Amino acid sequence: MYTCSVCGKTLKLKRSLDRHMTQFHSLAAPATDPNPEPEAIPEAIPEAAELKIQAPPKRDYYCIDCGYSPIRKGTTACPKCGGAFDWGAIE
Ligand SMILES: [Zn+2]
Ligand SMILES: [Zn+2]
């Protein structure tokens, strides 16, 4: 959708707007228009922006044998069932 900047009339096609400008306002259409539809720019979403700057959630590990949680990374054995942990596969 194109909007006449002079009278506010909306036209579906760029060439219709060009013709409208020439016929009704005696204005030649600009050769190039870097922003043909400024209204199409989506509004910023503040909630999404806030999510980006939040720290990543703290990760809790749990014992795969008994389900005990939380297990701190680097713990060598489960305090509940005594199962050994291998942290080599976890980054
Ligand atoms: Zn107009
Ligand atoms: Zn366990």
From TrEMBL:
Record-annotated C2H2-type domain positions: 2-30
| TM spans (from-to) | none
Q: Which SUPFAM superfamilies is this protein grouped with?
A: beta-beta-alpha zinc fingers (SSF57667)
Q: What's the protein here called? A: C2H2-type domain-containing protein
User: What species is this protein from?
Assistant: Dehalococcoides mccartyi (strain CBDB1)
